[in-house]
Design a protein that fits this description.
This protein has 13 helices and 10 strands. The chain has 265 residues and is α/β, with parallel strands linked by helices.
Length: 265
Amino acid sequence: MATNGSGVGSGSSAGQDRASASGGAAGEARSWRVTQVLGVPVAVSANVFAAALELKQRGGGQIVTLNAEMTMAARANPELGAAIAAAELVIPDGAGVVWALARQGYRVRRSPGIELARALLEYGARHGWRVALVGASPEVMASLRERLVAEIPGLDLVLTLHGYQDPALWPGLEAELRGLRPDLVLAALGVPRQETWIQRLHQGQPGLWMGVGGSFDVWAGSKQRAPAWMGRLQIEWLYRLIQEPSRWRRMLALPAFAWEVLRRG
């Protein structure tokens, strides 16, 4: 799907590339290249949707949607950094990451995680995937479940769990989730929790497990995504800040990220 793709350029520093890994039943190399932004791995792919389907065919794995804020958080939080480093597919979700990749010689388009996740839901509905949704508030999850079933014919939601469960219930719920072995698990638990939670649970599972941040709130209608023109100007962060002024401290990571990229050349 072209709307989820990333155009690929050449000319990265050779020392920053990680060799394409072998994997899957046939032992074939994956189709995407992996480089790093400030020491955090990120994929350079011609089409992240196709890459996600390839990952599913190869036995599943974790998908991370990397932006500047998460990159800086990963550098400060070893547990988050380790989860991202171990993930099977890390896509360039944020404009800052795309900019940093361009400085390495990679011309890629931003690949918003909310768009990839929606495309996977729609594809899964057409191909008999079993889907689990985890996270958000009880009210958002109730509205989300109703809306998605109405909007995506054939969607098979085998499990929907809000993110405010009693801590004592989580082990049993996690065991139930793993026992279902879904084809797609979308988790909206916030960063870093969703990345570390997925890393802990997805091992040995056949599906795609992806952290989706605030996507459930948008799909449920409780929040609005930034207008398309703001996305084209790569200032969606400003729209989120206007919606949630309490995010201002987190937004300080953006200039810190830019400075560190420039400092490293």
